[in-house]
Amino acid sequence: MKDRYLRIVSIAGVLSVLIVVLMGALVTNTGSAYGCGNNWPLCNGQVIPTADKQQTWIEFSHRIVSGIASILTVIQAIWIWIQLKKVKEIRFLAIASVFFIFLQAFLGAAAVVWGQSSPVLALHFGVSLLSFASMLLIAFIVFEETLPRAHRIVPPIHRGMRWNFILLSVYSYILIYSGAFVRHTESTLGCTDFPLCNGRLFPEPLVSKAGIQYLHRVLAFIILVWLIITLIVCLKRYKNIPSLSIVLFISLIFIFLQSVSGIIIIKSNMALYSLILHALFVTCFFGLLMILLMLGLRKTNG
């Protein structure tokens, strides 16, 4: 019975952090970052705000959800530390989940109280993704260890493919950071058409909002091709390990959806729904990629 409750907590933890990430995107894209003024943890000097402004309630709701996610993260970390202490990855992930959820909260609070530069604000989204990924990996392991018929997946991965997963993960984080940087430098509409950039193959001048947007497009195209090649190689070399190809295929779907939502952002002149979908797809993609990386790093004799 306690295994069942642990699975429920792990799912709740993943969903709560995902909601935090999406609400963070909502805060950014509705201009609600200062909905509670420069106050933290209070909101405009109040425990519960009385203002009727939409931005205030969006920011306040984001803080409430972040608090709930933090509590769930700590409870889960303590629980798995005790119950699953023999699992190799679990203690690292328990510490990482708590570290990233509180680092995320600190960066958010710092941005409200002291203000932050665009690079630091972009980093905030990157930390949020690491927080989500750590929770997703924990949930994956919890289900591996507690479901009656489940087993620990330890695919025999060659060194070259293992390094491919590592480099793919690092590159993906850079890509995601570049996307957050695009948003926080207000470069989303630096290119107002697609696939050209303001009617040109290359933006002019290159060092501009159009250049920032164009660089993000190039990075996104590279990872799309990279994933397709990796999937083809896995289908040929690892036919006996379907889990790798399945995770890769779903990851490819999400990166494709993210690309489509990016085009919709431009075509719809930054419609809110397209911005939220863009954040959702990239968050799911990164989480799946971290599962792939974890499987790739597992030793066969482990």
Automatic annotation (TrEMBL):
Membrane listed as a keyword: yes
Pfam family, one: COX15-CtaA
GO cellular-component term (any): membrane
Alphabetic keyword roster: Cell membrane, Disulfide bond, Heme biosynthesis, Iron, Membrane, Metal-binding, Oxidoreductase, Transmembrane, Transmembrane helix
Gene Ontology MF terms: metal ion binding; oxidoreductase activity
Compartments, record wording: Membrane
Transmembrane regions: 5-27, 64-82, 94-115, 121-143, 163-182, 214-234, 246-266, 272-297
Membrane topology: Multi-pass membrane protein
Recorded superkingdom: Bacteria
A Gene Ontology biological process term: heme A biosynthetic process
Pathway recorded for this protein: Porphyrin-containing compound metabolism
Predominant subcellular localization, coarse grouping: membrane
Record has Lipoprotein as a keyword: no
Name of protein: Heme A synthase
Natural source organism: Sporolactobacillus putidus
Name of the gene this protein is made from: ctaA
